[in-house]
Amino acid sequence: MFKLSVIIPVYNTEQYLEACLDSVFGQTLKEIEVILVNDGSTDSSLKIMEKYQAQYPERVKLLSKENGGQATARNMAIPLCTGEYIGFVDSDDYIEPEMYEGMYRKAKETDADYVECDYVNVKVNNRGEQERIADYGSRVREYTSKEDMFIDPMLAPWNKIYKRTLLEESDVRFPEGYIYEDTAFCLKAISLIRKFAFVPEKYVVHYFRGGSTMNVNKSRRVSNIFPVLKDVISFYQKHDLFEKYYPELEYEIVKILLCSSMIRISEIPDKQLRKQYCKDTWEMVLEYFPRYKKNTYMKQKGMKNLYMKCVYGWNIVLFCRLFGLRRQEV
Hints:
Elements lengths: L3 E7 L3 H12 L6 E8 L5 H11 L4 E6 L4 H8 L7 E4 L5 E2 L3 H12 L3 E11 L5 E4 L26 E4 H5 L12 H9 L6 E14 L6 H6 L3 H14 L7 H21 L4 H18 L14 H8 L5 H14 L1
Helix pairs in contact: 1-2, 6-8, 8-9, 9-10, 9-12
C-alpha cells in the first residue's frame, strides 16, 4: 500500500515539468504513487509524462483528457488514489526532498487527518529572473481549534496532505469551470477534518511566472469568485453546518470579497467592469452577511478589519480605486 498519492494536473508546462517531477520522485519517502493528469496539453508535456511512467511503471498512473482546467483534472484523479494520504503538486512548482516524509511522519505521530507545511513564493519575470515575494497574506501556522482553521487560512492544496478516506467518502471536490477553485476546495475540506497538524518547514517553492497584465478574458474571470464562494456557502448549508460555522465563514468570505478579490478587481482596465464587479461584491455581502461588521472576529485590532468596517455600498468603488493606485505605486 502506498503511504501517499500525489495528484499533478499538467497543461503545457514542458519547460518546468521535469524539474517538478524530479522533485516528486526524488522524495525521501519512497512509498508514493503519482497520478499524472494530462489536461489536453499541446506541447511536449505528455511525452515527458510518458517517459516518467516508463521509468516508474509501478508508481505512475497517467490519464489524458480534453482541456478543462485543474479542477476537472484533480477531481478525476481523487477516486483513483490508493495512498493513505493525498497531496497535490502544481506542475511548475518544486518541492523539497524531505517534504512528504516529514508531513507523513507528522500525520502518523499525531493521527492527523490533515497536515500543512510552510512555503516560499517566487516570482519569475519574462526574462527568467527570480525574486522571492511575500505570501498570500494568509497565516500558515499551527491551528488552535477547528474554528481557527477558517481564519486567514492558506487556501491552496499544494502545501497540504489529506487523509484519503475523508475525501473519498465525501462530496468535497473542486468546483469545475472556474478559477479560484482552490478556495472552495480548501474551505469545504475544513468541515471533514477532526485532527490537524503543522510542520513549520518551507517545503514548497511556489512560482508565479510571466507578466500580470489583465486582459479582457482575465478581467471577466475575476468574477468567478462569486460562484466559487456561493459553492462554499451551499456546501455548508447542504450539510447543516452553515449555522455552526457561521461566524468563521462570515469573516473569511467577506474578507476574501473585500480584500483579495477587491485587489484583483482594482487591476481590471475597464472602468465600467470594475464598477460592476464592485457592485456585485457589495450585493453578495448584503445577501449573505449583512451584519458582518458585528462579527466577533472583526473586534480584533488591525488595519484589515478597520478597512472592512469602513466599506459601504456608496464608497466601495472609491476603495477599489485606492487599491489600484497603491498597486501602481508598488
